[in-house]
Amino acid sequence: MASKGDKFKNGKDTEIEKQIEKTDPVGKQTNTGIEDEDLEKIQAGVATGKYEVLVKDKKGFFSSAIPTKLPCCVAILLCFFNCVCPGLGTLISAPFSLCEKERTQKRRIRNFFVNILASFLQLATTPLILIGWLWSIMWALEFLKPLKGEGYENS
Fold first, then answer.
1. Per-residue confidence band for 81, with pLDDT thresholds at 50, 70 and 90
2. What is the pTM of this model?
């Protein structure tokens, strides 16, 4: 039988990957199932580059519908439209959500209609304390997020 330290040799942590998080009846996380000394070894491995930590944002109903595979010039243009006329860039982006091949057809159609709904809500809530305009600007910045790691040569 392998000792506790053996599971960390060569960067393999298969036993930790197999551990299931224990939760209380309400569903709040109380214990990850990892002992303190093992957790310290993992943290040390992350600090030395032995392990890689991946963080994935969980997106909401509206933000998950934002098209992510836009050409650079289109994303900048839609950002401009959303800042000048709330909801316009969102409305124009709706057909682009139908072009994302990594999503299922049902999800693409849903995203199309969510974009149209969001554009009308952005426009309708603009007179009310400018909430729609602020939402539209935030949506516009989401168009530009995927371009953060890419160059401008993909336009």
1. very high
2. 0.60
